[in-house]
Design a protein that fits this description.
Blueprint lengths: L1 H5 L7 E2 L2 E5 L5 H14 L3 H15 L5 E3 L1 H7 L3 E6 L9 H14 L4 E6 L3 H13 L2 E7 H6 L1 H9 L3 E5 L6 H15 L3 E3 L10 H9 L1 H14 L5 E5 L4 H7 L8 E9 L10 H4 L1 E5 L1 E6 L24 H8 L4 E6 H15 L5 H15 L6 E6 L7 H7 L5
Helix pairs in contact: 3-5, 4-15, 5-6, 5-10, 6-8, 10-12, 11-12, 15-16
The structure holds pyridoxal-5'-phosphate (PLP).
Length: about 400
């Protein structure tokens, strides 16, 4: 069983019945080329040394594992630690993956990288990686998102990226992904597609997981040093699933409670949420087989979350498998719960979390208070909340 958990996916990219490679024939050569390159460079000393150096001096790793003493005391239960991915360069864990893929693209001899983005966080991370690696960069973004995220669009342009408006479908993230895939099919010779989360066709779910697993590797060493034992519980929010699998992966062999928190939006009954496990079913979407929010005819449903990073209709295939294996438990936090946690962490610890991360904090608050004082809980603080301050003010009816 332990081996089963670690040696996945199989050769065809399956995690049990999930994952795989559901793409048009025209995209297969690109995925096969990427898989080959990734397999080669993940064991290439020079590549790994360069990546490790940039993780340290550019991203700012290792990120601290911070004992949130006031929060722990206020809740009166478990000792809470926060893994501070909010302190990464550009403000979230996404740079861990974007930078590594930019370096990989360079090694593959590509001169251009492309990416999709919703709220713009992954677009900014990719544009940053491109600037550093000296690559051309084009970011696909739905026109609806471009309108809502003008500041991030300007950031990407400052970083030298071209931002291309996607004016079809719902004009949001899933349409941007389709356009990026179309571009890649046409320009595969000189272009690499930097997918932003542990999702999509093989090898992306495994590759993104591996690039994010630095989070858990560090956290494991840090907690052993601080507490002399492993934690009792790990909690992370789940959008596509990259910061969560990044934290959990180094602990899969251990007997530790792990909890993934999805976006409950306005509640499951409202239909306005992105809780794929609570409200979805098995389906194929954007290159892989996974849990999906869909209607009886298999049409993908619209989603809602107060946090753009969790607002997606499907979830990484490895999560489905680890859920079936009862290795990870999944739950959700509603918009209201996340907003309360956002304010709670700001006031008790002086840390304004990303609204995505606030979903993990909300679950952490529930769990910590019923755990005993000797137990240790690690919550992944996937990003900082600066990007969300304006939105929270708007929701609270405050005119800035
Ligand atoms: C994008 C994002 C997420 C969600 O993505 P995952 O791939 O599930 O990690 C979570 N937190 C922050 C801060 C993000 O920007």
């Amino acid at each position: 069983m332990k081996k089963e958990l670690e040696n996945l996916p199989d050769k065809k990219g399956h995690f049990g019945q999930y994952g795989g490679r559901f793409v048009p024939e025209t995209l297969m050569p690109a995925l096969i080329e990427l898989e080959k390159a990734y397999k080669k460079y993940r064991e290439d000393k020079e590549f790994l040394t360069k990546l490790a150096l940039l993780q340290k001096d550019y991203i700012g790793r290792p990120t601290p594992l911070y004992h949130a003493q006031q929060l722990s005391e206020q809740l009166g239960g478990a000792k809470i630690y926060l893994k501070r991915e909010d302190l990464c360069h550009t403000g979230a864990h996404k740079i861990n993956n974007a930078l590594a893929q930019a370096l990989l693209a360079k090694k593959m001899g590509k001169r251009r990288i492309i990416a999709e983005t919703g709220a713009g966080q992954h677009g900014v991370a990719t544009a940053t990686g491109a600037a550093l690696a000296g690559l051309e960069c084009e970011i696909y973004m739905g026109s609806e998102d471009i309108r809502r995220q003008a500041l991030n669009v300007f950031r990407m342009r400052l970083l030298g990226a071209k931002v291309t408006e996607v004016n079809i479908g719902s004009r949001t993230l899933k349409d941007a992904i389709n356009e990026a895939l179309r571009d890649w099919t046409t320009n595969v010779q000189n272009t690499h597609y930097v997918l932003g989360t542990a999702f999509g066709p093989h090898p992306y779910p495994a590759m993104v997981r591996d690039f994010q697993s630095v989070i858990g590797k560090e956290a494991r060493q840090q907690i052993l040093k601080k507490e002399g034992k492993l934690p009792d519980c790990l909690i992370a929010c789940v959008g596509g699933g990259s910061n969560s699998i990044g934290l959990f992966y180094a602990f899969l062999k251990d007997k530790i409670k792990m909890i993934g928190v999805e976006a409950g939006g306005h509640g499951i009954a409202s239909g306005e949420h992105a809780a794929r496990f609570a409200g979805g079913s098995l389906g194929v979407f954007q290159g892989c087989k996974s849990y999906l929010l869909q209607n009886d005819d298999g049409n993908v449903l619209g989603t809602h979350s107060v946090s753009a990073g969790l607002d997606y209709a499907s979830v990484g295939p490895e999560h489905c498998y680890l859920r079936d294996m009862k290795k990870i438990e999944y739950t959700y936090a509603t918009d209201d719960e996340a907003l309360k946690a956002f304010e709670l962490l700001s006031r008790t610890e002086g840390i304004i979390p990303a609204l995505e991360s606030a979903h993990a904090i909300a679950e952490g608050v529930k769990r910590a208070s019923v755990m005993n004082k000797k137990s240790v809980l690690i919550i992944n603080l996937s990003g900082r909340g600066d990007k969300d301050v304006q939105e929270v003010a708007r929701i609270k009816g405050i005119n800035l």
